[in-house]
Specification:
The complex is a heterodimer of chains A (256) and B (409). Helices cover 42% and strands 5% of the residues of chain A. With 256 residues, chain A is mostly helical. Chain A has a domain of 36 residues. In chain A, a hairpin with an 8-residue loop joins strand 1 and strand 2. Chain B has 14 helices and two strands. Chain B has a two-stranded antiparallel sheet. Classes of the chains: A mainly alpha (256), B mainly alpha (409). At the A-B interface, helix 1 and helix 7 of A face helix 4, helix 5, helix 9 and helix 12 of B.
């Protein structure tokens, strides 16, 4: 019996290892691991980093990138109060309607509105960005190999093109982007945003905060998932022990 | 009017209402007969846990699937966003979706182990051929459900001569993959699990005809060889279920996207093909077989044959000894198949170039060699070890007489 279990475990490890290796393979270098507050069994989002990250998104990323799956009301999870969410939402004008006259009209945004998009449609986005489409960021940390580490590496991975590499017009060199030519100009420059909490806004700090925010945007239920998961696994561990003891006891009635 | 006033089933329920029901609808009697008192060999090991586990997952998948279907929009323009609404705004929607998504992987893992158990211990042999074939039939539609998606994309059916293109148009509901395609596959996705449930019932019916095979592969000769399913195997299955749920929970709560692919979080765009299309891990071996053949039609045929060949296995195997324990060569050879499958899976996950192609072709050749040549041949040339006279003798061994003792835990 034990021999079988070992063989099975070995086969599983092999299979998972192969598969993991297969998916990890890309032409760009592997993004280095960063320390994220949301990693691990008890991982939670750092609220201060989330708010700073939202500020970076709002003041920098949002110029080109939408987060279409987010609503202003979702900002409550970042620790913003009701009034400040109303204030943030009211900064944008939203087309609503039709009204009683059958006309569309503009009104200030409300917490129940989806976050404003920078461009009306993909064509407009391409037209404004030399033909490149800035992807929606709501799921970006789950939609890229390497996840949050990759996005951080990308944001901080802009370099001058090495000798001999010829960049196409309007392209920038990025160490971690597949093919190394990316249409996005380096988005972050030191001291670009002024953090309310006085944190120095280095490129690394802003990238870290923005990626924390984007990771939350992609997986807003992570904290609840970790909390429930811990309880479920604890329960199952106890149940496993109980059933194992029960099995031993019941089977002791017969020779086997 | 002569009403039988004394139903008098000896082991029936004591409760009067339950007795009333049981006299008219023998539900309790059926549970007693097929679940509680159902005789099982006394020497089943933990490999025998995977059948009931597969059943539990099927129920989990249907339960979560039905709730997810209440919130999903099977419309090409709305589907992706509706999944995100489930993840974000439906109460515990993320939990349901992660259970459903990881459950599919778990089901395949368990079914593959269950299948290997059958291969190793010869559970497909007389008199369990139909039981085995029904099991393969269960595997087929389940595989189809997700596999059709890949089928649609890789346009497999167009390889069929003459009618191929018409079949593809029929499957797609148009000349490209579009909304009608999504609708019809969604409809089938809802239908097939219930077909599977029906086949599972037949699988159980066939199982209960001759009872479970066992690690010794010999028939039960009398009551001393059997124990009642309850409580011995109910408690053992419950323990196994808990261990499985632990692993399942780790995936659901701590690595819910580990078995998926990041591309699944990008809305499909007909204008942009992902640079490296990879099916789910459980289809990688079939995918490798498909790609190993330069001819598209032949590739499709081989891929489907790789599953269908299992249907013929009871007649391909010429050995009458069931358990690999008493077949010294097959005991080693049987492990070559899962190793081959892992190699095929690895090949399927890699871009097809250079050595990988050759490796895939060799592994594909071995796969069919294993079933078509090796297994029929082994039965002829192999000298099986002497079988124990009875399960009881093998299990209680030394007391009765020294015999070929199994590990029979």
């Amino acid at each position: 019996m034990r021999r079988h279990v070992v063989a099975l475990a070995a086969a599983l490890v092999l299979a998972v290892g192969f598969a993991g290796q297969a998916w990890a393979e890309e032409e760009a270098p592997h993004p280095p691991h960063q320390k994220w507050s949301f990693n691990g069994v008890f991982g939670t989002y750092d609220r201060a980093a989330l708010q700073r990250g939202f500020q970076v998104y709002k003041e920098v990323c949002a110029a080109c990138h939408a987060v279409k799956h987010l609503y202003y009301r979702d900002l409550a999870e970042l620790g913003y109060g009701e009034d400040s969410i109303k204030g943030i939402a009211a900064q944008v004008q939203v087309t609503d309607g039709p009204n009683d006259q059958g006309e569309m009209f503009q009104r200030p945004g409300r917490p129940s509105d989806p976050m404003a998009r920078p461009f009306a449609n993909d064509q407009a986005a391409r037209a404004a960005n030399n033909g490149a489409l800035p992807p929606d960021l709501s799921l970006i940390t789950k939609a890229r190999e390497g996840g949050s580490d990759y996005i951080y590496a990308l944001l901080t991975g802009f370099k001058d093109a090495p000798q001999g590499v010829k960049l196409n017009p309007n392209m920038y060199y990025n160490e971690y982007f597949a093919g190394h030519q990316i249409a996005m100009p380096p988005p972050l420059n030191a001291d670009q945003v002024k953090y309310a909490d006085g944190t120095p806004s280095t490129v690394q700090q802003m990238a870290h905060d923005a990626v924390t925010f984007l990771s939350w945007a992609a997986e807003p239920n992570l904290e609840q998932r970790h909390r429930i998961g811990f309880k479920v696994i604890l329960f199952l561990l106890i149940a496993t022990g109980v059933f194992y003891a029960g099995k031993r006891k019941i089977w002791s009635r017969i020779e086997h | 009017m002569a009403v039988p006033s004394h139903p008098a089933p000896s082991a029936g329920p004591r409760n009067r209402i339950l007795r009333w029901i049981d006299y008219r609808l023998p539900f309790w009697a059926a549970v007693q007969h097929d679940f509680m008192e159902y005789p099982a060999p006394r020497n089943l090991n933990y490999w025998w846990n995977f059948g009931s586990l597969a059943g539990v997952i099927l129920v989990i998948m249907i339960a979560t699937g039905v709730v997810l279907a209440m919130h999903y929009q099977p419309n090409a323009d709305l589907a992706f966003d509706s999944v995100e609404r489930i993840m974000r705004d439906v109460n515990y929607g993320w939990l349901l979706r992660y259970i459903h998504a990881n459950g599919a992987s778990m089901f395949f893992l368990i079914v593959y182990i269950h299948l290997f158990r059958g291969l190793y211990y010869g559970s497909y042999k007389y008199p369990r051929e139909l039981l085995w074939m029904l099991g393969v039939v269960i595997l087929l539609p389940w595989g189809q459900m997700s596999y059709w998606a890949a089928t649609v994309i890789t346009n497999l059916f167009s390889a069929i001569p003459v009618v191929g293109n018409d079949i593809v148009t029929l499957l797609w509901g148009g000349f490209t993959v579009g909304n009608p395609t999504l609708n019809r596959f969604y409809s089938l996705h809802y239908l097939l699990p219930f077909v599977i449930v029906a086949v599972v019932m037949l699988h159980l019916l066939a199982l209960h005809q001759h009872g479970s095979n066992n690690p010794l592969g010999i028939d039960r000769r009398g009551p001393q060889d059997a124990i009642t399913f309850h409580p011995y195997y109910t408690i053992k299955d419950l323990f196994g279920l808990c261990v499985f749920l632990l692993i399942f929970a780790v995936f659901i709560f701590y690595m819910p996207n580990a078995l998926g692919h990041p591309d699944n979080y990008i809305p499909a765009n007909p204008m942009v093909t992902p640079n490296h299309i990879v099916p789910e891990w459980y289809f990688l071996p079939y995918y490798a077989i498909l790609r190993s053949v330069p001819n598209k039609l032949l590739g499709v045929i081989l891929m489907f044959s790789s599953v269908l060949i299992l249907l013929l296995l009871p007649w391909l195997d010429t050995s009458r000894v069931r358990s690999a324990r008493y077949r010294p060569i097959y005991r080693l050879v049987s492990w070559l198949l899962p190793i081959d499958a892992v190699i095929l899976g690895y090949v399927g996950s890699q871009p097809p170039a250079g050595f990988i192609v050759t490796l895939g072709q060799l592994a594909t050749i071995y796969y069919f060699f294993h079933f078509l040549i090796l297994i029929p041949l082994l039965g002829k040339i192999e000298r099986p070890l002497p079988l124990p006279l009875s399960i009881a003798e093998a299990v209680l061994g030394p007391r009765t007489r020294p015999a070929a003792a199994g590990e029979g835990e």
